[in-house]
From TrEMBL:
PANTHER family the record matches: CILIA- AND FLAGELLA-ASSOCIATED PROTEIN 300 (PTHR31078:SF1)
Predominant place of localization: cytoplasm
Keyword tRNA processing: no
Native species: Apis mellifera
Family in the record: Belongs to the CFAP300 family.
Keywords: Cell projection, Cilium, Cytoplasm, Cytoskeleton, Flagellum
Pfam families for the chain: CFAP300
Compartments where found: Cytoplasm, Cytoskeleton, Cilium axoneme
Function noted in UniProt: Cilium- and flagellum-specific protein that plays a role in axonemal structure organization and motility. May play a role in outer and inner dynein arm assembly.
Gene Ontology CC, one term: axoneme
Name under which the protein is recorded: Cilia- and flagella-associated protein 300
């Protein structure tokens, strides 16, 4: 019987996320009501790690006192260190296998009804789904299971980490100004994805992603979710990104709402 490791987590200084912090990318994030509503933090651990340890590692992470003192979560309109030790952690493994943006080529083909030949996103009659205004076929592809465009991406494709990022950006925040063309969404998706995952070259020169992605819901002693707060809202999402090579952990937390400030 294998003895479970006791992990020691050490906070790291905020990394310079070159792609996300690009001025043009920041302008789009502001326009879509995303800027200020997500937080990225970095930690490391030194203990031995195998991929099958991922669930134990994630649970230990949220129940660790050092992490609790450093982890920023939403408190009102602020990002704050609330020093919460998780009582329970729901963990869902997320596929992270997409190596290039050809994953989104289906959206760029006018035959599929998302964009016109000009690149402009196809408009449609307004309807509301899960409190989101659906006025074009791109957002319908994300939310309207009854429309033909929804079937462009299969269930396993929708569960890719890059698809979660894309959906978060397209649906945006409360003060979202939507785009009329597709390309900005793809550009910012690529920027965020590149900053969040790590690609390694294998011996046979093939590329692979070394990042393990877990979607998590951490709950406090009262059984209330705080990472993310109100996970019933599809834009409230929290991920733990584990680099199995460098033993680094990156947290990514997005909370739908008004602009959040650091406290």
């Amino acid at each position: 019987m294998e003895i479970e490791h006791k992990y020691t987590f050490v906070p790291l200084v905020q990394k310079n996320l070159i792609n996300i912090n690009d001025k043009k990318i920041q302008e789009f994030l502001t326009k879509w009501g995303i800027k200020g509503n997500f937080i990225i933090q970095h930690f490391t651990f030194n203990e031995p790690f195998q991929k099958y340890h991922k669930y134990h590692l994630a649970e230990a992470f949220f129940k660790d006192s050092t992490v609790a003192k450093e982890l920023l979560t939403k408190q009102g309109n602020y990002w704050a260190k609330q020093d919460i030790i998780a009582s329970s952690v729901e963990i869902n493994p997320i596929s992270c296998s997409v190596l290039n943006m050809s994953f989104f080529n289906k959206l760029k083909d006018p035959k599929n009804g998302i964009v016109h030949k000009s690149g402009a996103i196809c408009k449609r009659f307004d309807m509301e789904i899960e409190n989101f205004l659906i006025s074009d076929n791109l957002r319908a592809m994300l939310l309207d299971e009854e429309c033909p465009e929804y079937n462009l991406y299969l269930k396993d494709e929708r569960e890719e980490f890059i698809f979660f990022i894309f959906q978060m950006l397209v649906l945006g925040g409360i003060l979202c100004q939507y785009e009329d063309i597709l390309n900005p969404y793809l550009e910012v998706t690529k920027a965020m994805y590149k900053d969040l995952i790590k690609v390694q070259k294998n011996e046979d020169t093939d590329l692979s992603i070394s990042t393990i992605v877990l979607q998590v819901i951490a709950k406090d002693s009262k059984g209330e979710a705080y990472f993310p707060y109100d996970p019933s809202h599809m834009q409230n999402i929290g991920f733990l990104l584990i680099d199995s090579v460098t033993h680094e952990i990156t947290t990514f937390l997005h909370q739908f709402g008004e602009y959040c400030l650091s406290q």
